[in-house]
Every structure is written in C-alpha cells, then in structure tokens.
Design brief:
The complex is a heterodimer of chains A (313) and B (257). Chain A has 313 residues and is an alpha/beta fold. Helices cover 32% and strands 27% of the residues of chain A. Classes of the chains: A alpha/beta (313), B mainly alpha (257). Chains A and B meet through helix 3 and helix 6 of A and helix 1, helix 3 and helix 4 of B.
Chain lengths: 313, 257
C-alpha cells in the first residue's frame, strides 16, 4: 500500500536561526526533505545538526525563520505531529533499570497500531539481550534499541540522530539495511552523521552543515563530482612558498590543487598513475619528502575539506 | 531486495490516552518495585519503624493516650505515603531527567498530562501495596483501628498530592545526585522530627511548629481517621495548602530535560 501522496515536503526549514546565549548554533539554515527519501545531514560535531533536528521534533521553538514538518508546526501542532514521527535521540532515552524489550514494548503501547515488538526486536538483534537492563547493554545494543523505539509506532517520518555511533561494523550494516527498508516501505528518514561513508551509502540527498550554515547540498554523486579522482599529498615538513602554484603548473590545467594545510595538499581531477609520478617527481624537485600520497575516488570528506579547509571528523 | 516489504508501511497514531496512562503507570510502578533501595524505603523501613516503636513504647513512657500499636500504625502508614510520594518520586524523576527518559517520552504520543497521571497512578499502586503490607504486620501485632476509611482515604490522597508536588519541585530544579541526597535527607529529618510517626503531643512546644509541616499534618490526619474515626479538617487544609504551593512551584520551575 503506497503512502498517500501529499504536496507538502516532509520537512521544510526556512531561514532557521538558533542561539544559545551569545553562541549561534544555527545561522540562517534552509533545508527541504522530500518524502520517501533518506536525507543525511552531515557535519562535524557542534555544526548545529542536533539543534536543527530538535527544532523539527518540537523540542525547541525556532527563534527566527520557520520550520514545518509533515505540513505542521512542530510547536503549535505538536500533539498532531508527534504520533506521526519517530525520534531517536543522540543521548539517553531509557530508564537505567528497564529491560531492553520491556522498554520497546512500553513505547509500542503508546501507539495505536505498533509493529510487532518481538519481530522488530529480533530483526535488530535484541533477542539475546531482551531481559538485560538498559545500563548493561553495549553501546551498539543501546543504539539499536533506541532505533527500534523510534520506528515501533509505524511513523511516516523518522529523525535519527547519529544512529550508528558506537556500533560495530555488523551493527552498522544491520542499521543501514533497516533504514533502506524503511525508505522502500514509504517512510521518510532524516539522519545526522559525521561518517561520510554512511551518508554516501545511504542518502538520496546530503546536506553538509558547518557552523550552523549549509555549505553544500546535493546527491552523493553531485557532491563527489561524479566520483572523480583525488590525490591527497601529505609531506613531512612544510611546503616551500608558492608550492600549490608550481605543482599546478607541473600537473597542467585539468587538475585542481587546493591547499589543506602547510603540509597537505588536495589534487582534484582526472588523476591516474602518471599524475602520481608527476607529483612525486615534483616533491623531489622541491626537496620535500612525501609522508603519504593517496590516489582515490573523490569522497565527501574531500568536498568538506575543500570548502572549509578542515577535516570532517 | 528493492521491493517494498510493507513491514514498515506507515500507520501512525496515538493509543487512546487512558491506555497510554495505564501503560505509563504500570511501567513506573514496576520500575519502583524493582529498585532495591526504593523497596527498602517503601516497605522495609516503615515496618522496622513500626515494630521498633511498639517495642520501645513497652520500655519508655512516651505519654501516649492509646495503645502503642494503635497510636503508631497510622503514623507509619503516613510515613509510607511520604516515602513513596516524596522521596521515591523525587529520586525517580531526577534520574529520568538525567537519563533523558522524560525528553524521549516528550516526543512520544504521551502528553505531559498523561505522564503526570501515569506517575500518580504508579504512586497510588505502590501505596496500596505498602498499606496492605503494613496493615498486615500491624494487625498481626494486634492493631485495633477505630477507622473512618473515608477520612483515611482523604488524608492519603491529599498527603500524596502535597508530597508528590514537593517531590517533583525538588526533582525539577536539582541535579539527579543532589535530588537523591536532598530527598533522603528530608525524609530522615521528617521521620525524626516531623511528627509523622510520633504524635504532635510528643514534641512539646515544638508541636506548634511541626503541625504546619506536611508530615505533621499527614500524621495527625491519619491518626484522627484511624484512632478516632474522625476527619481532621485543619490538617487536611494544611495538606491542601502545601499541595497548591508545591504545584505552583513545580509548574514555574520544572525543567523537563
């Protein structure tokens, strides 16, 4: 049964500004999430991801700008909105002494037509620790329980804040598969993460946020420029004056050289092994010793690095 | 693999409020009874106090006007109400804030009013259990109440309201550890000097002060209802004033997160 088509987007954030005292956490953010998609909000810690999400969830009032979720005002129409969304908080959310499945069952009882709790628990690998108190679950088990709590009420839209933080690789895969299945079944997923691989693998659309502002937005392919190549060069001591320009000349105009730091450069474009040879020859000529020289597909990490000059995580 | 499975097809909606409140009350009472320290506070200490006081009264002259077991049982029931409505509730709520439980429930279909009703339901359930156990022990010690059940019920309900509102006030403004310490300290101070178990008359001149405390008022109202079968209107009024004060303070200061 397909989800009823609605004209309003799942989430529409328009010019949102949020401050904590003097500190500006969100600085004029615009964000639109289409229904039936997985949208990743990517950014370093403190970028304003959680504040934005919590404003959408109705926890905070927008100080400036507007927020609309499923066509509703998360503050004024909170009671109408809450049953329709699922929320996974970054921190806490369960009694320390509650048993895993007991907690899930409790949340399910607050909803009209919840999922089968046992099936969901099994699906997320909570079967073995169903009677374990929350405080004695591993970090990954706690995360999976919290994800189950977010979806047990059969919501139209789920907000998941750092869903795979503290998970082992198997747990991350289970979580990713679940989020993909949610989308196939007509649920809209908004997730925050600071793992690029997670955003690249899962998201239909990625919004990169830094210091409360949207700095890039697009499909994973768009943001990695169709998967073009990059070379990251790190040397043991600082480059001489004018190094990016001289390397740019050595490589030719079809490749772009960006300074990341005084010991690190990013080369973007159709690079191959010949390019690598040119770079190492140039290093020898400049009298710098490469510490690492990596040829790879351009990643979101590179995009972030190029825009902000900082590492993402 | 890429076909919809329909497992998660959206079908959102809130359960009827009554069902949500029932779920919350049963969850919270289960958690209270599972917690060793809380159970100690709720049942073990009142029973020890009851037996201890009755035994002590055989050896000391406390100036009681009734048989010790008849005089002490209503006070110990008041103590049990105080321990659950004030101390247990404050500690549990303090840690719920700390662990983000209240925040998480804030984005569930359960409204704040439902959460409060659930807490009240859990308190009443635990109190019922306490009253059953303590009354059982008292009857075994030959308790002969001359009871007005309606008067006792009024005292318990108003006492619960007064102490619960004060407990929520403490839990809403302090950190969890500070709440834990404060709630236990207040409990001990009121147990010793709050005229909850010992009658007001045992406090001499100080009795004029303690009768205005919620502990003294609840203790007196319980004694009036179970010794004389009477409604202690003034004590019930004192409890009502405390309940209003606690509710106003809580409403103005409580932080859900």
């Amino acid at each position: 049964m397909p989800t009823p088509v609605s004209s309003s987007p799942a989430v529409a954030v328009d010019g949102l500004v949020m401050r904590y005292g003097e500190k500006v956490a969100v600085d004029g953010l615009d964000l639109v999430v289409d229904r039936n998609t997985i949208t990743a909000v990517l950014g370093p810690n403190g970028a304003g991801k959680t504040t934005t999400l919590e404003t959408c969830e109705g926890y905070r009032r927008a100080q400036q700008g507007s927020v609309s979720v499923l066509g509703l005002d998360p503050q004024r129409q909170r009671r109408d909105l809450l049953p329709r969304i699922g929320v996974m908080l970054q921190d806490g959310g369960a009694w320390s002494g509650v048993r895993a499945m007991e907690m899930l069952r409790h949340i399910s009882r607050l909803h009209a037509d919840p999922l089968d709790v046992d099936v969901l628990g099994e699906r997320l690998g909570l079967g073995d620790c169903g009677r374990t108190p929350y405080r004695r679950l591993s970090g990954g088990q706690q995360q999976r329980l919290k994800l189950a709590m977010a979806i047990v009420g059969r919501p139209e839209l789920v907000f998941v804040d750092e869903p795979t933080a503290g998970m082992d690789p198997a747990g991350r895969r289970t979580t990713w598969e679940l989020l993909e299945q949610l989308r196939r079944d007509g649920v809209t997923v908004v997730l925050t993460t600071h793992h690029m691989d997670e955003a690249e693998r899962l998201a239909d659309r990625i919004h990169i946020i830094d210091r409360g502002r949207m700095i890039a937005s697009g499909t994973p392919l768009e943001l990695t420029r169709g998967g073009s190549s990059t070379i990251r060069l790190v040397v043991t001591k600082p480059f001489p004056e004018g190094a990016p320009d001289s390397l740019g000349q050595a490589l030719g105009h079809h490749l772009e050289v960006t300074t990341i730091s005084d010991v690190s450069l990013l080369i973007t474009g159709p690079a191959d092994s010949t390019t690598l040879a040119t770079v190492s020859a140039w290093c020898e000529q400049q009298g710098v010793l490469p510490e690492s020289l990596n040829l790879g597909q351009r990643t979101l990490e590179d995009t972030f690095l190029e825009i902000t000059g900082r590492e993402l995580s | 693999m890429n076909q919809p499975t329909n497992t998660f097809t959206p079908h959102p909606g809130a359960a009827p409020l009554a069902r949500q409140v029932l779920a919350q009350a049963s969850m919270e009472s289960r958690l209270m009874l599972r917690n060793g320290e809380q159970l100690l506070l709720a049942v073990v200490i009142p029973v020890i106090v009851l037996i201890g006081a009755v035994t002590a009264a055989d050896h000391l002259d406390l100036g009681l006007s009734h048989r010790p077991i008849d005089e002490f049982t209503p006070g110990v029931l008041a103590l049990a109400v105080m321990s659950t409505a004030f101390t247990s509730l404050a500690i549990a709520t303090g840690f719920e804030r700390r662990y983000g439980v209240i925040k998480r429930l804030g984005s569930s279909p359960l409204p704040r009013s439902g959460l409060l009703l659930g807490k009240v339901g859990a308190l009443l359930l635990v109190e019922l259990l306490q009253i059953a156990i303590i009354s059982g022990v008292a009857l075994a010690l030959d308790w002969q109440p001359h009871a007005s059940l309606l008067a006792a019920l009024l005292a318990i309900v108003l006492g619960t309201a007064a102490f619960a509102s004060l407990g929520l006030f403490v839990a809403g403004v302090m950190r969890a550890e500070a709440t834990l310490a404060a709630a236990n300290l207040v409990y001990l101070l009121l147990l010793a000097g709050g005229a909850v178990v010992l009658p007001i008359s045992a406090y001499g001149a100080f009795g004029d002060v303690v009768r205005w405390l919620p502990s003294g008022a609840l203790g007196s109202a319980m004694r009036a209802s179970l010794i004389d079968g009477a409604v202690a209107w003034r004590d019930l009024a004192v409890l009502t004033v405390w309940a209003v004060l606690g509710t106003v303070l809580t409403a103005r200061t409580f932080k859900w997160e």
